[in-house]
């Protein structure tokens, strides 16, 4: 999940990582990394 400065042009906006998740194969549960 990324955060983006909504005042900047979306194509040029800097993004920062807010959270990372993975979904193991065959398991619909999200696991935070």
From TrEMBL:
- Annotated region (Disordered) at 1-33
Q: Which domain of life is it from?
A: Archaea
Bias-annotated ranges (Basic and acidic residues): 1-25
Q: What is this protein called?
A: Alkaline phosphatase
| Organism lineage string | Archaea, Methanobacteriati, Methanobacteriota, Stenosarchaea group, Halobacteria
């Amino acid at each position: 999940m990324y955060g983006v400065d909504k005042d900047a042009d979306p194509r040029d906006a800097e993004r920062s990582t807010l959270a990372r998740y993975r979904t193991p194969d065959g398991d619909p549960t999200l696991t935070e990394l």
